[in-house]
C-alpha cells in the first residue's frame, strides 16, 4: 500500500487534550465500541481498487453505499482514513496504520475459516441453487460433479428456469441470473460476463452458404430464442427492421438448450455464448460485426453466508465463473478462435471430466 502522506513515527499517539485515540486504541472495542468489520472490509476494497467507482463495480453495489459505510467507519473510529481526489482515493497516515492492522485481521479471519472447514469437512444437509436454464445446463451441471464429490454428504438441489428465483422468499439459497438484482436487501456478486455472437453448424454452411455481413442474414434461416429479455427483441429489430419473424425465422424456441441444439444440428444461424465451442459442439463463429453481452450475477439472502453449507456453495460458484480461469467470462470480448491463447494449461486441467469432446 502506497503512503501518500508524510511518514509518522511508528508509535503514533496524538495528544490526550485533543481527545483522539491512538490507532491501536481505535481498534479496541472496549474503548470505542464494536468495530464494524464489514465496513473495514469495504474500505480495504476501495483502497485495493483505487476508487469508489471501481470498488462498487467489483463488489456489485452502489457508490453511495460504499461512501456511506466508509463515512460511518471514520466517524466510529474518530479518524480520517481516506481522502478523495479526482484520480481516486488516497490513504491518510492514520489510515495506513488502521489498514495494516485490518489486513492482518483479514488473514487471521481467512485462516480461521480454513481451520473450521478442515474440522467440518463432512458438511451435510441440502443446498438449493437456482440458475438460468442455459447456464444451468451447459456450465453449472458439468461442474457440479466436482462439487458433489468434494462434499458427498450434501444434497444439491438445482432448479433451472428462465426466470430468476426469489431468494428473499427462500425459493433458493443461492441464485445465478443474467439480470442485475434490484432488491436492496439482497447480497449480490458480479460473477462475470457472457459474450454472444452468431454461430452456425458446418452442415448448415455446406447447405446454405456462409454469410459475409449482417445484411446477408436476410437471405438465411434464423433460429431465435424467445424469452422475456428485451435485449434480443431489440437486436432483431435493429438487424431486420420491418421484417416480420414469419418471413425470416425458421425456428423459435423458448429455452436455451433447445436453441443451442437447433443451431448445432443445422436448423439455422443463431446467437450463442462465445464458449459454445468449448462444450463439445462443432460450431463455426460468424464474424458479422454483431456482438452482445449480459452480466452474470449471484444473489443470496444476507444471512445465508452464516450457514456453512450455503457458504461452501457460494464460494464454489464464484470459482466456477472465475474470469481469470475462464476467459470467456471476462469483461472484454475475446473471439472464440482466440480463447485458447488466453486459457492456461492449469485451467485446462481443471475442466470437469468429459466436459466437451471438441475444443478449438
Outline the structure in words.
This protein is an alpha/beta fold and 360 residues long. Helix content is 37%, strand content 18%. It contains twelve helices and eleven strands. Strands 3, 4, 5, 6, 9, 10 and 11 form a seven-stranded mixed beta sheet that branches. Strands 1-2 form a two-stranded antiparallel ribbon. Helix 7 links the parallel strand 3 and strand 4. Helix 3 crosses helix 4, helix 3 (37-49) crosses helix 5 and helix 4 packs across helix 5. The chain is globular.
Q: How many E strands?
A: 11
Spatial separation of the terminal alpha carbons:
41 Å
Largest sheet: 7 strands, mixed
Put simply, the count of helices is 12
What are its keywords?
single chain, 360 residues, alpha/beta, seven-stranded mixed β-sheet, two-stranded antiparallel ribbon, 18% strand, globular, disordered N terminus
In summary, what is this structure?
The strands form 3 sheets. Strands 3, 4, 5, 6, 9, 10 and 11 form a 7-stranded mixed sheet that branches. Helix 3 packs across helix 5. By secondary structure, this protein is α/β, with parallel strands linked by helices.
Layout of helices and strands:
Elements: H1 23-26, H2 29-32, H3 37-49, H4 52-59, H5 63-77, E1 82-85, E2 88-91, H6 93-119, E3 125-132, H7 133-150, E4 154-161, E5 174-177, E6 187-200, H8 202-208, E7 222-225, H9 230-239, E8 249-253, H10 256-264, E9 270-273, E10 284-285, E11 292-300, H11 308-320, H12 345-349
Parallel strand pairs: 3-4, 3-5, 7-8
Antiparallel strand pairs: 1-2, 5-11, 6-9, 6-10, 6-11
Amino acid at each position: 500500500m502506497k503512503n501518500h502522506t508524510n511518514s509518522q513515527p511508528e508509535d503514533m499517539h496524538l495528544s490526550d487534550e485533543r481527545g483522539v485515540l491512538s490507532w491501536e486504541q481505535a481498534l479496541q472495542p472496549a474503548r470505542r465500541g464494536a468495530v464494524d468489520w464489514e465496513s473495514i472490509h469495504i474500505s480495504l476494497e476501495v483502497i485495493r481498487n483505487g476508487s469508489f467507482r471501481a470498488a462498487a463495480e467489483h463488489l456489485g453495489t452502489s457508490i453511495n453505499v460504499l461512501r456511506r459505510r466508509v463515512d460511518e467507519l471514520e466517524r466510529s473510529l474518530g479518524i480520517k482514513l481516506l481522502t478523495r481526489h479526482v484520480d481516486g482515493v488516497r490513504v491518510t497516515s492514520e489510515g495506513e496504520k488502521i489498514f495494516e492492522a485490518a489486513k492482518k485481521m483479514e488473514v487471521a479471519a481467512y485462516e480461521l475459516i480454513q481451520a473450521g472447514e478442515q474440522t467440518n469437512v463432512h458438511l451435510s444437509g441440502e443446498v438449493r441453487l437456482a440458475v438460468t436454464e442455459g447456464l444451468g445446463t451447459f456450465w453449472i451441471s458439468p461442474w457440479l460433479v466436482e462439487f458433489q464429490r468434494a462434499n458427498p454428504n450434501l444434497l444439491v438441489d438445482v432448479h433451472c428456469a428462465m426466470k430468476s428465483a426469489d431468494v428473499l422468499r427462500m425459493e433458493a439459497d443461492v441464485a445465478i441470473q443474467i439480470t442485475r438484482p434490484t432488491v436492496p436487501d439482497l447480497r449480490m456478486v458480479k460473477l462475470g460476463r457472457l459474450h454472444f455472437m452468431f454461430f452456425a453448424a458446418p452442415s448448415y454452411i455446406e447447405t446454405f452458404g456462409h454469410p459475409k455481413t449482417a445484411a446477408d442474414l436476410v437471405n438465411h434461416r434464423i433460429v431465435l430464442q424467445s424469452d422475456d429479455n428485451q435485449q434480443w427483441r431489440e437486436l432483431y429489430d435493429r438487424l431486420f427492421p420491418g421484417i416480420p419473424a414469419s418471413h425470416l425465422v425458421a425456428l423459435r424456441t423458448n429455452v436455451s438448450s433447445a436453441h443451442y441444439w437447433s443451431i448445432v444440428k443445422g436448423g439455422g444461424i443463431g446467437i450463442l455464448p462465445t464458449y459454445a465451442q468449448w462444450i463439445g459442439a462443432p460450431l463455426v463463429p460468424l464474424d458479422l460485426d454483431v456482438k452482445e453481452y449480459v452480466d452474470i450475477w449471484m444473489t443470496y439472502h444476507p444471512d445465508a453466508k452464516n450457514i456453512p453449507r450455503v457458504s461452501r456453495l457460494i464460494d464454489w460458484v464464484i470459482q466456477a465463473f472465475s474470469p481469470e480461469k475462464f476467459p470467456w467470462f471476462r469483461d472484454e470480448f475475446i473471439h472464440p478462435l482466440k480463447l485458447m491463447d488466453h486459457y492456461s494449461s492449469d485451467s485446462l486441467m481443471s475442466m470437469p471430466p468429459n466436459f466437451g469432446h471438441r475444443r478449438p
